[in-house]
Amino acid sequence: MIVTLKTAPVLEPITLAELKNHLRLDSGTFDGNLDLDQSLSYVSHAIANNYTTHVGTGIDVLGREAVAVLHCGTNGAGGTNDTRIEESDDNVTFTAWTGGAFTQITTDGAGATEPDNADYKLAYTGTKQYIRTASKVLVAPCEFGTSILVNEATTAEDSALEVIRASARIEVEQYTSRALLTQTWEYFLDAWPKKNFFRLPYGNLQNGTGAEPVITWKNVDGTEATLAVGTDYIVETNGEGCGRIVLPDGVSWPTDSLYPSNPIKVCFTCGWTTVDSIPKNIISAVLLQAQDIYFRGAQGLERSIQNMLRNYRLRWEF
User: Fold this and answer.
1) What whole-number distance in Å separates Cα of residue 233 and Cα of residue 214?
2) pLDDT digits over 142-160, tens only?
3) Which residues is 45 bridged to in the sheet?
4) Cα–Cα distance between 44 and 312 in angstroms, integer?
5) CB 81 within 8 A of CB 134
């Protein structure tokens, strides 16, 4: 099998903060661990029945623990403040975080609401790189602002720990023959298969807008062509198993003579799309492997870690 990594994952199964907590490492001072960034400035915010008017600045929280803080002053008579956390991969396109939102703020805090003139906090436990707040104000203007508190926990070993958590993920990937989080690979074949399908490695094949496997091939003269998904081939994702490229009924593989070196290339994206989607045993195995590397410089997985991963190994040979 000839396969090359095109795009590495932007996330790791364990964050730097999680690894430090597991290893009992931090900067040694409370103040040194914390970084406070303003997301939305504290002013009187006008009525806006949407989450696009009162929008805060995105803050980078990748690999760190983060808490959003809502600083509330006085609501106007009958005014309500609904504030939520939004998340993004690129600090451009934000969506509402599904993990929760602040309880609505009212003047009296009656019923399922909280009173104004108080501060509230909400921990972010998602996996995106950037977060911000967005607020909706109804009935009357409300005084408030938001900030993001980030646990930096910087140590002199941070660079080494970043390498360790990536190495631990790679060790687990190699043992299970899986790609844990979204990454793009190029898979090369020397010839078209004799059957009407072939498998792709690493499991969790993605197939959606912008993530469809792309198949290109070169004839003996080196002229490249691209097969059309849906017409020339069908994509089977097969859940957490190995995906397949399948010929539609009545369709055959191209019959032209092939280029002598790596004539067929399949570019595909695979892996779980979020850390929360990865089975907990795999997350624990990555954490334990990182611990093993840190303390002993171990290469390969200990038997106890292998046992945790046994049911997640892909058995197909490529």
Assistant:
1) 10
2) 999 999 999 865 566 778 8
3) 142
4) 53
5) no
Kindly tell me the burial class for residue 230, based on how many C-beta atoms sit within 10 Å of its own C-beta (0-12, 13-18, 19 or more). exposed
**Interaxial angle between packed helices 280-296 and 16-23, expressed in degrees from 0 to 180 and rounded to the nearest 10:** 60
Q: Is the pTM of this model over 0.90?
A: no
| 83, two tokens | 């504030």
Residue 170 lies in a domain: no
223 in a domain, yes or no?
A: no
Q: What would the pLDDT profile of 52-83 be if each residue is shown by its tens digit?
A: 999 999 999 987 889 999 999 999 999 999 99
Residues near 128 by beta carbon (within 8 Å), at least 6 away in sequence: 61, 62, 87, 88, 89, 97
DSSP string, 181-200: B-EEEEEEESS--SSSEEE-
How distant is the alpha carbon of residue 308 from its chain centre?
A: 22
CATH number for the domain harbouring residue 56: 2.60.120
From the list 131, 87, 82, the residue with the least C-alpha distance to 105 is: 82
Distances in whole angstroms, Cα of residue 302 to Cα of each of 94, 162, 272 = 41, 21, 24
Q: 298-311 burial, b for 16+ CB within 10 Å, e for fewer?
A: eeebeeebeebbee
Q: How many domains are contained in the chain?
A: 1
Q: Which domain holds residue 129?
A: 28-151
- Bridge partners of 187, per DSSP, are 3, 266
Q: Could you tell me if residue 252 is inside a domain?
A: no
Distance (Å, whole) CA 135 – CA 196? 54
Q: Please check whether residue 62 lies inside any domain of the structure.
A: yes
Distance CA 105, CA 110 (A): 10
